[in-house]
Amino acid sequence: MTGIILCALDISQKEHEEKVLRRAAQIAEIDNARLDVITVVPSYHNSMVAGYFSPDYHDRAVAETRRALSDFVEATLGAEANAGMRHVVATGTVYEEVLAVAEADGASVIVLGSHRPALRDYLIGPNASRVVRQTGCSVFVVR
To answer: Which CATH homologous superfamily contains domain 4-121+132-142?
Structure first.
């Protein structure tokens, strides 16, 4: 194994993310690397919104997201591939969490999807462009 390929997925966009996951699996196979998948849920602990959710909402959201991520990977790549990879469900801002996990794990490549940019994306910057600009490893962006 030559490293870790980290595939960042938005499982609410399954029709687009299936292509991203398949490409990440191809890259991992070519590089003889381990494939890890990550998805990020928003933080519900912010004082402005925390009162609108039950105290256990975040834990339930993470558990449900973990199940959904595993089911998505299994449906896309099969049970054997799913069993051999690490599933990360992080909490926070997408690009910050992807960068943190990639750095902590020593990922050699980050694979993620990107949508067609809108005008607001040029002003704010989508997660994909932030990851590309701020990471120290290679990034493969799937459109």
So the answer is: HUPs (3.40.50.620)
| Strand partners of residue 6 | 36, 110
Looking up tokens 């499982």, which residue turns up? 11
Give me the tens of pLDDT residue by residue for the chain, a chain 143 residues long: 469 999 999 999 899 999 999 999 999 999 999 999 999 998 876 666 667 778 788 899 999 999 999 999 999 999 999 999 999 999 999 999 999 999 999 999 999 998 665 554 444 347 888 998 999 999 999 98
The partner residues of 141 in beta bridges, in order of sequence, read: 112
CA–CA separation, 119 and 30 (whole Å): 36
Adjacent-strand bridge partners of 8: 38, 112
The answer to pTM > 0.85 is yes
Give me the residues paired with residue 35 across strands: 5
Using CB atoms within 10 Å of the CB of residue 4, give its burial: 0 to 12 exposed, 13 to 18 middle, 19+ buried.
Answer: buried
| Residue extents of the structural domains in the chain | 4-121+132-142
